[in-house]
Design goal:
288 residues; alpha+beta; six-stranded mixed beta sheet; 15 strands; globular
Length: 288
């Protein structure tokens, strides 16, 4: 038992420290998503919590088909996904590729931990359960850097260990998602602060201070107790779905045009759609 506990603590420490240091950056100069070196990069992002584990009360079996409809209709440049099974990412990546024909698309997945087993949390069908991300990129052959881990603070009353995930999108944007603790709001607040104050800034320094997007179900509300705004660093912009899903960006990203996307009862959260504008003349931006 002691050995298993030590292993879990080591794994959590690695998630925050060593994984950041060990993740490789794309070789060679990346190609920007912007069409003009001095013009802004415009990206549309949609956040969806699909409640697709098959275990939760909000599961309907219809959220994955509805997510494919949303991606087809909205053609976002980034999609962040919570409460999904690993195979859901592959299904949605194929749909995502059809709306970005001729462009390269990438996907990433990070399983939530399972405290009792020391392995992954599983969906009802046995697949790993966690968070995912889809992105349109313009790099040619090099795989984008992916950063992932398990939050260092967890609710010990919940067997699920919450995870976070980031993808470096052409060195233009560090796109991240997470699904924070639902069983303890103080734990969710601590996870939010650690992610926005420590983990993401560390990755940002490593990637040359690229702008950062965090999009996900934070299980915290504006005006709630605790208030989600207490974990958002000064100067950052934030929008929400009127409840617990939020999109947070660093000061070098413009954030506008919030819109809710109806999921028609397929899940217990609406889709959250927003538009990002990244200054094309920011210092340190790679040439096109």
């Amino acid at each position: 038992m002691a050995d298993r506990r030590s292993h879990r603590l080591l794994r959590r420490a690695l998630a925050v420290g060593c994984l950041i240091a060990a993740a490789g950056l794309p070789a060679g100069p990346p190609v920007s998503l912007a069409t003009d070196r001095t013009g802004p990069t415009i990206l549309r992002v949609v956040q969806m919590n699909l409640c697709n584990s098959g275990r939760a009360g909000c599961y309907t079996g219809r959220s994955l088909p509805r997510a494919t409809e949303v991606i087809s209709a909205e053609a976002p440049d980034l999609v962040t996904l919570n409460e999904i099974c690993q195979d859901d990412v592959a299904v949605l990546e194929r749909v995502f590729a059809t709306v970005h024909t001729g462009r390269r698309v990438v996907s990433a997945f990070q399983a939530a931990g399972d405290r009792p087993s020391g392995g992954d949390t599983r969906c009802r069908d046995g697949q790993p359960y966690g968070v995912g991300l889809l992105a349109r990129v313009r790099t040619s052959d090099t795989a984008p850097a992916v950063y992932r881990g398990i939050h260092p603070t967890q609710d010990l009353a919940d067997p699920e260990e919450r995870a976070w995930l980031c993808v470096d999108v052409d060195a233009v944007l560090l796109a991240c998602t997470t699904h924070l603790a639902a069983t303890g709001y103080a734990v969710a607040l601590a996870q939010c602060r650690q992610l926005l104050d420590t983990i993401l800034p560390a990755i940002r320094r490593r990637t040359g201070h690229a702008p950062v997007l965090l999009s996900g179900d934070l299980n915290l509300r504006a005006g709630g107790d605790p208030d989600v705004r207490s974990c958002v660093p000064p100067g950052h912009q934030r929008i929400d779905d009127g409840a617990r899903q939020h999109i947070v960006v660093t000061t070098d990203v413009g954030l506008c045009c919030r819109r809710l996307v109806a999921m028609h009862g397929a899940t217990d959260h609406p889709g959250l759609l927003a538009t990002l504008s990244i200054d094309g003349s920011r210092p340190g931006r790679p040439p096109t």
